[in-house]
Amino acid sequence: MSPMDSYESWSNHQTASAAELEDHLYTHLQQCRQREDADTVLQRFSDLFVEADVTYPDSFVWDVLVELAYRPYSEREFKYTLNRCSYTLINPWSTQPRDHWAIPALVQLFESIPDSPARHSETQRIRELSRRFTKTDQYAALRRFANLIDEEGEVEKSIDDQPVAKQLKRYPFLYDSSLLTKDSDQDQKMQVGKLRRGAEADLGVKLARYCNQQKHGASRKITNPTRLSSTELDQALAYYTGKVEGNRSHRDLAQMFRAYSKTVRSFRDFKEEFLEYLLSPLADADPRYVNNHFGKALRQYLRETLHDFDGQRLTDFIVITTCQKLLNFLVVQGRPQPVFRRFWQLLNEVGHTLTVGLLLRVVLFCSTVKPWLENRLTVLFNYHERCACKEVPWLMDTLEHTNVALLTNFGKFGYSFT
Fold it and tell me: For 6-60, how does the pLDDT look when each residue is reduced to its tens digit (9 = 90+)?
């Protein structure tokens, strides 16, 4: 853009749409990233959004930023602008290993917004909007993305002493719900998808090789790729991929129940059979689960779910909604103040293998709700992300088991279900 173009654009800035003004910011940051090193770009980013320096060298860009900060609804909308400005730099940096360090460095900038009153009202306004940004879902996702990319992390600490947030890299099924927000653009979705597929492939192949070694032996020892003990992993692999009822695996039983559900007369009848399908592994381990507190609560919950549809035939809507509500019941309800007492008690009573196996039966029957299961577990992860791993061993083991259950049943890494 020539100086004259800039002048003409700015002369009409009050009639420009917010999107047009934002594009000036994004373009400016893109151009800076392309011609300057990461250190210089980070300083520019700080001058604009953290220090909010009125002497910023590109006066046109500064004026655009000020106009956005004072626009109506800026207190509601500015977080989206700032989020995209951040990813305008972060997405390209994430594809260049030499620039990975700059991603946590950019996120860290927001921790140093000056608290003292500024000399200029424009500076004060932008700093306040940036400070509000640090309280949003967008910033939380940005911080998690930095943790995922950060190669330094907290390597000096043992895993038990590290915060849960630092373990995100190990659990690709959490990526979508942890790293994406409602305003994530297509570039960010593609980047997260690429990272997830890469992490799943890496762990999936290692698990498949380990599983093959345990069944057939191997000339070269394959290391256990999980944080479960070898005994725990062997039991988990056997349960999630082996025979659990007669000669049938969880996958076989889900397929059979799915075929049955297409012939059931009513939703009411389906719910009674669905209850038996879900409870049978728990009842086999402990017959009390047919009529104990958990069994009764689950039965009552299913009977009350969408009861207005009880007399109808099954539809995709009924099945998907029922399974989503069931996962809320089994794992966690709510988000800001999640309730997960029932899930925690079940883990303590029957163990991680049977509990995660129960969740696996739900998503094998209705694979459409697999992202919803991932979302429910993400709620638990995000809620505890500032805890040390040793403070929530039940959660860390749940995530490890879920990795094994989902990768073996939904990945394409050569597992045999025998």
Answer: 434 444 556 678 889 999 999 999 999 999 999 999 999 999 999 999 999 999 9
> Are the C-beta atoms of residues 226 and 402 closer than 8 Å to each other?
no
Based on the number of CB atoms within 10 Å of its own CB, is 17 exposed (0-12), middle (13-18) or buried (19 or more)? exposed
DSSP letters for 34-79 = HHS-HHHHHHHHHHHHTS--TT-S-HHHHHHHHHHHHSTTHHHHHH
d(CA 115, CA 127): 9
Question: Phi and psi of 306, rounded to 5°?
Answer: 50, 45
Phi, then psi, of 339 in degrees rounded to 5: -110, 120
How many helices, marked H, and strands, marked E, lie in the chain?
19, 0
Give bridge partners of residue 366 from the DSSP assignment.
none
Residue 70 has pLDDT above 80, yes or no: yes
SS (H, E, C) 307-348: HHHCCCCCCHHHHHHHHHHHHHHHCCECCCCCECHHHHHHHH
Residue 96 phi/psi, 5-degree rounding, is -120, 105
- Measured CA to CA, the distance from residue 349 to residue 329 in angstroms comes to 17
Nearest to 408 by CA among 199, 252, 240, 242: 240
Q: What CA–CA distance (Å, rounded) separates 404 from 56?
A: 51
CA distance 88 to 6: 21
Comparing 227 with 412, the larger pLDDT belongs to 227
| Residue 418 clears pLDDT 80, i.e. is over it | no
> On the CB side of 231, how many CA atoms lie within 13 Å of its CA?
0
Evaluate whether 18 touches 68 at the Cβ level (below 8 Å): yes
> Looking at this protein, which amino acid is placed at residue 298?
L
Distance CA 141, CA 101 (A): 17
Q: What angle do CA 93, 97, 98 make, to 5 degrees?
A: 85
SS3 117: coil
